[in-house]
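Minutes, methods subgroup
Present: GH (chair), OT, SY

1. OT presented the first of two proteins processed in the latest run. Sequence and structure tokens recorded below as shown on screen.
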Amino acid sequence: MIHDANGNIWFKGNLHTHSTVSDGKLDPDAVFQLYKQNGYDFIALTDHYRFHKESVEVGGLLCLSGAEYDTGRDVWEGIYHITAIGCTEEPALSNAGEKPAPQEIIDEIHRCGGMAVLAHPAWSMNTVEGIRALHDLDALEIYNTVSGVPWNARPHSGDLVDRLALYDSFIPCIAADDAHFYTGDAC
């Protein structure tokens, strides 16, 4: 927590990170410790289709409930990754069989009292048309560390945000690290 010159309080957090519960390289306790040691006030573990069901405090670090849900087979039909943050119950979403459509994911996250965030839209090669077809997104990631070098090559989604604005589509933005490897992609 930081106080600025105007008396405002700022909190440092990360709403997209992974653990060994899905494809991350650190177990949840090690993830909590890493972020706490780096001055974070809150995080959300967003393992793939693995819901972390409760918001808890771990050594002064608020850990929000979370998960990451994805759908789509190729960039032509659209690949969407959507994180669920702060749900009060587990979304009824499964990656067994046919995955749900992106709007179904958003609607289910909202039904469970959570916030639906479109993760790494540039990395997923989402289009303006595809994003505009989605309703009630709470935010999108304008930047995502693990989507950049040396892990990938498309971390910035600012161009998409600018093009959405041309159509009066204004979606709040967040930056996250989407840490998996913990070799420079976290914090």
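2. SY then presented the second protein from the same run.
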Amino acid sequence: VVRQVRGTPGFRVAPVLLVTRAFANHPEGLPQELCDEDVVHVDGAPTDEDSLRRADAPRAAAAIILADRESDAVSDAISADVAARLRAMAEGAPPQVVTECVDDRNRARLIAAGAAAAVRPLRSYPEMLARALVAPGAERLLEDLFSSEGNELFRVDLPQPYRGGWGRIAGTLLEKGLGTAIAYRPPGGEVVLN
């Protein structure tokens, strides 16, 4: 997640701080991989205002709240509490908050608590959290593509190579209501993204 956030314009040099008790019993503290990313750690619970104040949360520009347990919907209540605390503590503009949401039925509650976006916990794809932070709403498209309902990606093999321009084929697909062209593969070549 840190690399994805830092790979985004506007967050390249942003300080990253973790508020968690996850490393309390590790004698070496924060793993070296996080230290190498210049991550700072505050040992404490994100539901504890003192811990959030030690992390300078009142002046935070952005926050990502990871679900306490990615398969337990009770985590959504904890995340809503943290989002509301961050909003209430803000000195000035509230931070841009992105939170994981275990149960889709809790999305509206998380948004009402102060989150700009609520994303399913897909830990294998930290890009979604970074996208939600930078462009709230973009994560919904990505989630939709990962689910078995809603939009779907598919490939169309043509009987012969297409020789026209990209705009023409993309426009035709849109006009006919067949979808949005996002990539193509020339004969014998690698996929080219739109």
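Chair's summary of item 2: Strands lie at 16-20, 39-43, 62-65, 96-100, 117-119, 183-184, 192-193.
Next meeting: continue with the remaining queue.
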